[in-house]
Amino acid sequence: MAVYVYAITPADHPLRLDGVTGVGEPAEQLRVVTEGDLAAVVSDAPEGLRAKRRDVLAHQTVLQELLGQAGVLPLRFGALAPDDDAVTDALRERAANYRDRLRALDGCAEFHLKASCPEDLLLAAVLRESDDARRMNEEIRSGHGGQDLKISLGELVAAEVTARRTALGASVVEALRPLAREVRESEAVGDDFVSASFLVERTRQNAFLEREAELVGEYGEDFDFRLHGPLPPYSFV
Amino acid sequence: MTVVPQGGGGPVARGGGGGSSSSLYDVLELILDRGLVIDVFVRVSLVGIEILKVDARIVVASVDTYLRFAEACNRLDLESGRKAPTQLPELVGEMTEGGARGKSKGALTGAVEAFSDSFRKGRDGEREEEPEPAEERERSRPRRPPRRREE
């Protein structure tokens, strides 16, 4: 029977999992596989498991529950071992490595921040500040200039919008970086200008949250900040 | 999932599981694409999900996108010229010019793009669906009246 693996924890982790269930429909029962001073939280693997919303949420819920109790190494969604013995083998073979990571992440959690700014706001700023963009825009509006002029305007504006998003993202990340132990940025998509994960020590969590709340106030209500956390340290394992 | 309340809620981080589809979307990339990998284990197929990583900024460098931007400028200028020329926010320019300080007032007006349909669908019940790829989100962008995202 294949085994779905959620997390690696120290064996002395409280591992309270009452009322929490695993992936699958019906949800699989969670259990713990222990090897030396390490433990893995696993369940039977349902047939034909795919990344459905329900299952991704179940994976995240198990990890969130474990994080609330003590340190945890979250596995990426979808790890399948052939059986329990394969899990204990993996724990034994890489014990030193997992122990080091658990120690390094002890007392830390991940906060993930995304923030967006409506595109129209950026376009308005570009038109206001770039004489070239304004001139081309006027020309197009008055019926002069063909496709080439539109493409030139679009190219200029696209570059300006990207530059503004990049600057916005950098300023947000730099404002929070001093309060995090590590930062990992990823590409922001859509109207988002930042997508960043921060590894924050529990003792500095309040300071981090206060600073982020200040940023929300400073940027104003047209900006949409979405902060998630404390999360299992997915980005820092 | 834990979501820190935004907008002056103070430094309160709620613990515990729970979970909601709306906040799941934002952390999907973490759950699917980060986290520990144990190389001797196999991994569930994520066919159809990998598209999450599509980089929207790469798409920016295309003629279609340039035309879209040009048309957006044209439309924006017309609309703002007719309705409320004085309300064009000063904020963004100040911030990008000012580098890392980002001080500004919180009194902007204007259209706030509401969350995409994919979010709403997720929230309203399609919980058994696979998470929608980011590309879908890019495409469906209804303009909506100004409103703050629901928390």
Automatic annotation (TrEMBL), chain B:
Q: What is this protein called?
A: Gas vesicle protein A
Q: Which family does it belong to?
A: Belongs to the gas vesicle GvpA family.
Q: Which PROSITE patterns did the record assign? A: GAS_VESICLE_A_1 (PS00234), GAS_VESICLE_A_2 (PS00669)
Keyword Lipoprotein listed: no
Query: What NCBIfam families does this protein's entry cite?
Result: PRK09368.1
Cite the record's Basic residues compositional bias ranges: 140-151
- Main location group: other
- Region Disordered: which residues? 114-151
Task: Give the range the annotation lists for the signal sequence.
Answer: none
**Summary of the function given for this chain in its UniProt record:** Gas vesicles are hollow, gas filled proteinaceous nanostructures found in some microorganisms. During planktonic growth they allow positioning of the organism at a favorable depth for light or nutrient acquisition. GvpA forms the protein shell.
Q: Which InterPro entries match?
A: Gas-vesicle_GvpA-like (IPR000638), Gas_vesicle_GvpA (IPR047870), GvpA (IPR050530), GvpA-like_CS (IPR018493)
Q: What are the record keywords, sorted? A: Gas vesicle
Tell me how this protein assembles: The gas vesicle shell is 2 nm thick and consists of a single layer of this protein. It forms helical ribs nearly perpendicular to the long axis of the vesicle.
Subcellular localization is given as: Gas vesicle shell
